[in-house]
Design goal:
The complex is a heterodimer. Chain A is of the alpha/beta class. In chain A, strands 6-7-8-3-9-10 form a six-stranded mixed beta sheet, with helices on both faces. A four-stranded antiparallel beta sheet of chain A has the order 2-1-4-5, with helices on one face. Chain A starts with 5 loop residues before the first helix and ends with a helix. Chain A has three domains: 133 residues, Rossmann fold (3-Layer(aba) Sandwich), CATH 3.40.50; 66 residues, no CATH class; 33 residues, no CATH class. Chain A is globular, with a radius of gyration of 19 Å. In chain A, 38% of the residues lie in helices and 23% in strands. In chain B, α2 runs parallel beside α6 and α2 packs across α10. In chain B, β1 and β2 form a beta hairpin. A two-stranded antiparallel sheet of chain B has the order 1-2. Chain B has 13 helices and two strands, in the order ααααααββααααααα. Classes of the chains: A alpha/beta, B mainly alpha. At the A-B interface, α3, β6, α4 and α7 of A face α8 and α9 of B. The complex binds adenosine-5'-triphosphate (ATP) and magnesium ion. Adenosine-5'-triphosphate (ATP) binds next to β2 and α2 of chain A.
Chain lengths: 289, 360
């Protein structure tokens, strides 16, 4: 969110974000292993990268480790007694594994947690203002960004003085995203924005994500179970299973992949099986070995 | 009618003190989920610090140390404000600490040049407040941070340890006698509404003063919580500490702030209590009276703590005066607990327990 007006942002975006060298992505996760409670090994070597200005999808079934990956990046893991025990995480080439969430938000990396996690006893506007906590650029800048958020989410403006706990699921999701925007992020780690929302609303949220990406230059790492939706908006995708990346590729390739069609897009014949039973995947694995 | 109102009023004013102590509990419980058993000890410690700094019986080191702490707090405030208002020109960590240290030295120098002993209230009160802030920092660093993410019961036990430590430590450095607080708060009785009732209503000026101070404190806290950035962050942490962390609110700082605020509240309670009864160890036991107040008012409700305190204070006095003759005296000692028990039976979340918003 480098601009106070969406229109101004659009101009800047049309010039394109500064092209990063291909070998230095905005965010690089290298082979991380995550252990909860010192014993539960959840991520078993996950690597991924997000280019500047990109939308990258992190896909997978329940319990695959999507949220854990995002929390490892934002360092919210510690609060859940999780720990990155191997590998490294780099943001703009700087190791960030040991930074606190506060440090990361100041650098422009913020997570929108699964299940929105709005502050139920605060009003919608107060929720948004908490997002500006780390900023020190004064009240008028905060006000301007509040207007910007309202321009993306006009519905929040109508509901600004209701307690967030009494707003609808969609409004809470918007509040959560808007709250993150108030920190002027460069990169949002967005965890299952579609959860529990009606299809039109999911579409609306994804449209806004796409606009934020284009007009404000915010990069997204998007964890989703809604594979179809995520691949429509993302440029690149990773598929996680049991704490490992089993497949990755551009969104186009992934959505054409037979296994992805069968197991994640529900387009194949037969019921939903585990991804690793897929013969294409086996073939690929043999080929990789 | 006159005597009845007198009893009610006296009870309400006594209740103000319970409210103040309960308020300290609620603040910490809301923001960190910690049941702070040490709140009573903090009241004693704050009152002792103040009473002793105003006396002239201690060693020079005591006064110079307190002056250094006060300077430290002022310096910290200056650097923090500087960082917020002019981030570009703000000093880095090393220079920042230098500035803070310089302020501490200035504090010592000023204290030394004024002959050090027996501080007036307007210096001693900020100094006691600064000491409570330092205590909050120490508690956060030495107890809360190492125990982060532990079970609430473990943190609760840690606060029992803190309580005993503060009790002992306070008496070691400040002494263990009974001290008076020479703040010049009037104590004499006076009559109100003499034209309405025959003989008027007898109240103690100190009680009125206590009620006024408590009112101001509550108003200031309300504005702080509702209108400021930090207050909003505190409420956010109370609501959902994980989400608060996710937007970059640092829990450690928030804990220091709430413990400091609870320390200030303890100081106010200590001033009022100490003015009435003298500063002595029994102040620490006030905490036990705050417990039924919390059960009545709900552990998470600021208005609950205040109204609960008033109800208990008033109930105690009414029971003592009107039931005392039939049940025998001493009702005041157990009435609060009985009331709490009854509330527990019928409304375990307390009369004012925060409404739980159930909706995803
Ligand atoms: N705090 C925790 N302690 C122990 N194990 C955990 C913890 N959080 C998650 N796990 C385990 O880690 C695994 C991955 O969980 P994670 O939440 O990352 O999955 P996910 O891909 O986000 O799933 P979903 O789509 O259901 O959100 C699960 O098996 C889960 O049980
Ligand atoms: Mg998840």
């Amino acid at each position: 969110m480098a601009s106070a007006q969406p229109a101004a942002g659009a101009t800047r975006a049309s010039q394109g974000p500064a092209p990063a060298p291909a070998n230095a992505p905005l965010l690089a996760v290298n082979n991380i292993e995550v252990i909860y409670n010192h014993v539960i090994l959840v991520l078993k070597g996950v690597s991924l990268s997000v280019p500047e200005g990109g939308i990258v999808a992190l896909l997978g079934a329940n319990g695959a480790g999507k949220s854990t990956t995002l929390k490892a990046i934002s360092n919210l893991l510690k609060a859940e007694r999780g720990e990155v025990t191997k590998g490294s995480i780099e943001y703009r080439g700087e190791r960030v594994d040991t930074l606190t969430p506060n440090d990361l938000v100041r650098r422009g990396v913020i997570q929108v947690m699964e299940g929105r996690h709005c502050f139920g006893h605060l009003t919608v506007e107060e929720n948004l203002l908490t997002g500006a906590f780390t900023r020190a650029d004064g009240l008028s800048a905060t006000r301007a960004d509040l207007d910007l958020v309202y321009s993306y989410f006009p519905r929040l403006k109508e509901r600004r003085s209701s307690l967030a706990g009494y707003t609808s699921g969609g409004e809470q999701q918007m509040t959560a995203i808007g709250r993150a925007l108030m920190s002027r992020p460069k990169m949002i780690l967005l965890d299952e924005p579609s959860m529990g929302l009606a299809p039109q609303l999911v579409e609306e949220i994804f449209e806004i994500v796409a606009r934020l990406n284009k007009q404000e230059g915010v990069s997204f790492l998007l964890a989703e179970q809604n594979t179809n939706m995520a691949l429509r908006y993302a440029g690149y995708g990773y598929i996680l299973e049991n704490g490992r990346v089993v497949l990755d590729g551009s969104a186009g390739t992934l959505s054409q992949n037979e296994d992805v069609k069968e197991f994640y897009l529900g387009m194949g014949a037969g019921g939903r099986k585990s991804f690793r039973e897929g013969k294409h995947y086996r073939r690929r694995k043999r080929w990789l070995a | 009618m006159g005597p009845f109102i007198e009893v009610v009023l006296g009870g309400l004013l006594a209740g103000v003190l319970y409210s103040l102590v309960a308020l300290g509990f609620v603040l910490i419980f809301k923001a960190s989920g910690v049941f702070n058993f040490a709140q009573g000890a903090m009241v004693l410690f704050a009152a002792l610090s103040l009473a002793r700094l105003m006396s002239d019986e201690l060693t020079v080191a005591h006064y110079l140390g307190a002056a250094a702490v006060l300077g430290l707090a002022v310096g910290y405030g200056v650097v923090a404000a500087w960082r917020r208002l002019g981030p570009a020109s703000a000093p880095g960590p090393r220079v920042g600490w230098g500035v803070i240290a310089a302020f501490a030295l200035i504090g010592v120098a000023v204290a030394a040049s004024f002959g050090v002993r027996g501080w007036p209230g307007w210096v001693a009160i900020p100094a006691a407040a600064a000491i409570m802030g330092l205590l909050a920092v120490a508690i956060e660093r030495l107890v809360l941070r190492p125990l982060v993410n532990q079970e609430p019961i473990i943190l609760f036990m840690a606060t029992i340890g803190i309580a005993f430590f503060i009790d002992g430590f306070g008496q070691t450095i400040w002494g263990s006698g009974i001290y008076n607080l020479p703040l010049g708060i009037p104590k004499d009785p006076m009559f109100l509404l003499e034209s309405v009732f025959d003989g008027g209503i007898l109240v103690n000026k100190l009680d009125i003063f206590a009620a006024a101070i408590a009112g101001v404190l509550v108003a200031v806290l309300a504005v702080f919580f509702q209108k400021t950035r930090i207050g909003r962050a505190l409420r956010a942490v109370a609501d959902d500490h994980q989400a608060a962390q996710s937007v970059g609110i640092p829990l450690n700082q928030i804990w220091i702030i709430v413990w400091t605020v609870a320390g200030f509240v303890a100081l106010v309670a200590g001033i009022v209590w100490g003015s009435a009864l003298g500063v002595q160890f029994s102040i620490a036991l006030v905490a036990l009276k705050a417990l039924p107040v919390l059960i009545l008012g709900g552990f998470t409700s600021v208005p609950g703590a205040i109204i609960g305190g008033l109800i208990i204070g008033m109930g105690e006095k009414l029971a003592e005066v009107y039931l005392g003759p039939t049940l025998g005296g001493g009702i005041e000692n157990w009435f609060a607990y009985m009331l709490a028990l009854v509330v527990l039976l019928f409304r375990p979340q307390g009369l004012f327990g925060e409404r739980i918003i159930e909706r995803i």
